[in-house]
Amino acid sequence: MGYSYGGVGSLLAAALNPRAVRSLVVIEPPAFDVALDHPAVAALVARLEPVFAGARRMTPEEYDRGFDEGLGFNHVEAANTARLDAARRERRPWEAHIPLEALRTQPFPKLVFRGRAPRSATSRR
User: Fold this and answer.
1) Same domain (yes/no): 6, 51
2) Parent domain of 90
3) Which among 8, 15, 36, 68 counts the fewest CB atoms within 10 Å?
């Protein structure tokens, strides 16, 4: 089971070692690689790329603010700067190639929870 970026890790781990998986649950994984051709995903990546590109030169607080703004969220100061410091060094979510077909053919149950894009972030319903 994985949430957010941890969902990407769960997807990758399940694909690498499917015999060890009894079921797979992911909650809002930023698996952008599977939808880079969608205009809303491409726009989100374009907004987040400068944040990731400059992350190592930013303070954890600057990174947090830029990330929130790139996502279109109202910024709220994070209490856990250690988590932010680690997040600044993660690879970009769109760089993780999720082998969907390999996962699709596995016999274990799969459940994906996803949010709905804000009205302004999507061109289709």
Assistant:
1) no
2) 39-95
3) 36
73 Cβ neighbours under 8 A, 6+ residues apart: none
| Residues 77, 62 share a domain | yes
Q: Are residues 7 and 48 in the same domain?
A: no
91 & 102 share domain: no
The string of pLDDT tens digits covering residues 12-26 is: 999 999 999 999 999
Residue 125 inside a domain? The answer is no
Cα distances (angstroms) measured from residue 55 to each of 38, 66, 75, 86, 100: 25, 9, 17, 11, 29
Tokens matching residue 62: 């600057």
Q: Are strands 2-3 and 24-27 parallel, antiparallel or unpaired?
A: parallel
For the chain, how many structural domains are there in total?
A: 2
Q: What is the CA radius of gyration of the chain?
A: 16
Q: What is the pTM for the complete model shown?
A: 0.79
